[in-house]
Amino acid sequence: MVPKHMKEEYERYISSLKWKQKREKAIEGTFCDGKYWCQRCGWDFDKSKLEVHHLNYDSFGKEDTCDLAVVCIRCHEKLDKSRAEKARTKSDNALYEAQLDGWATKVYGENWQDYNDIDSIAQEFEEFLESKNEYW
Questions:
Q1: H helices then E strands: how many in the chain?
Q2: pLDDT tens-digit series, residues 52-62
Q3: What is the distance of C-alpha 46 from the center of its chain?
């Protein structure tokens, strides 16, 4: 699954000759013993049944072969789902950290991290959230 902000750029790049050549090279790299292999499940497939998965989008458009995985459609779906879950977790963690910082700043002032134990402040914040939920 491609991040929303990259959708247009992704579609343009995936249709390009540059990508098609890179994709072909990656798939050819799995050829062994007269077969093409999924790098995740290890099963052999017809070349046309393999897809190329971006392990990350950090080097999108300039990716090396090590930034890609040649996989079957089932494994591709699993990898996309896993990446989406990691992105959600990262986003949820960032939101929680921002909320904690905002709450602690209101309660303890700017630079609260310099004068307080972060773990105990986080525990206080959790208790605050629980008490807030009791009223809603």
A1: 5, 4
A2: 999 988 899 99
A3: 28
